[in-house]
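Quick one, T. Sequence first:
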Amino acid sequence: MQIKQGGFAVGDLNLKKYFLPKNLKKDLPASLVVFLVALPLCLGIALASGAPLFAGVLTGIIGGIVVGSLSGSQLSVAGPAAGLTVIVLNGITSLGNYETFLLALVLAGIFQMLLGMLKAGTIANYFPSSVIEGMLAAIGIILIMKQFPHAVGYDADFEGDEGFSQTDKHNTFSGILGALAKINYGAVIIALVSLSLMIYWPKIKKLALIPAPLLVVLTGIGLSALFAGTDFALLDKQFVRIPIVKSSEEFFGLFKTADFSQISNKQVWITAITIAIVASLETLLSLEAVDKIDPIKRISPTNRELAAQGIGNIVSGLLGGLPMTAVIVRSSANVNAGARTKMSAVVHGLLLLISLLCIPVIINLIPLSCLAAILLMTGYKLTRISLFKHMWHQGLSQFIPFVVTIVAVVLTDLLIGVGIGMMVGVFYILRTNLRNPYFYQIIKNGDKKVINIKLAEEVSFLNKAAIQITLTSLPKESDVVIDGSNSRYIDPDVLEIIHNYKHNAYTKGIIVQLLNVKDKYDVPPLKELMYNPN
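Structure tokens:
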């Protein structure tokens, strides 16, 4: 049973499937992996956004529990997004204080809910598959390059940064070179041991009941304690640093509320609209990507996701959190960890809450290098060699947008890179469309050629030039049959070319016959065009 609001489902009361033993067996270990991945990312993004560290963890909690419960996606995980750090930092600065920014976040959530009601999520249907595959591979490469410095024990950039240009005045490549110059061998040992456990532990069937990531964390804590006081000792900044809450009073004092007295501030509305648009685009891209790597190949309802994200951002704004989106890094880690339902995302939110309230001291013993190993494995799985081989065999029209998207995302950021990939992908779609407005067949009838031109189902103005060139190049003294039997729509410009050609063809000794070509066609409804893009 589902709760409906504004034409889309916002809740799912059929909870039984989420508690089935066969699902919990996979979801609970996966939630632990997502929790371990999400925790340092939440803290790093909050730090880069100029917001309190608590705000980052709070956003992860809301993204897991609230959005995870309301979302129609079974595998996506919501939380603070690296792509919004600049917007958040500029928003807090321009609005003067954090409370006014929270008002903009509440309004952004309302806008996202409206976008869901208006079914704006259907825009995800227009993302070319090659671009989404390229985005996934690029995220894998970025994870490997960005986590390498953490694995060797040095990174001045914030945890979770996905952009090429970094806030520490370096870029991805110079960040790696800088890390190589300042290696901490204790961190390297922990990372190598952690990678070995991630690779080989799951292969030992009798021991695989203990999740490899949990063993990685326990081993990392143990090795860091062993290295204390030696040349291999880790520095404070090489550990997770979650805020320690000592009392309930201190905990509730961390929450902040939106300043609704600034509702008439024009800049608040501009910031809200910016957050809503960028967050919605990142969410739709992430959702499409997660559906690609879902082993069960489920299709997530995009409009419902926008609504769920909107509700999450409203709650986050009211409690003092950050903007959130569906995040591809956490979501892909969730998929690779074997999750089956959204119970994994919800439990990861609960684990974030428990870690903040009950065991912050223990959490702060976790070395970043062992968490880097988990993300390195996630990155490797996203950018495996077999994916490149598969895209190559799909042909250049798929491979080129795929590669362009990878290069663009790695050298810029997610949205800019995908935008560049989209332009190249659309170019190839239009190129294919221009080449396929008709089927061409030449039949001999004695000494005369009979040329059959069968028009496609949809013949748009984009096909105008191709059809005109074809008609003007037909041989003299031939019979031409233009068949529109399969055509549901022919653009008026194309019809004009066809009728003009028939009228003037006699000068070349050409006899033209039109079969089922109407004088006028009604424009098909948008819904039909969506499923018939040619």
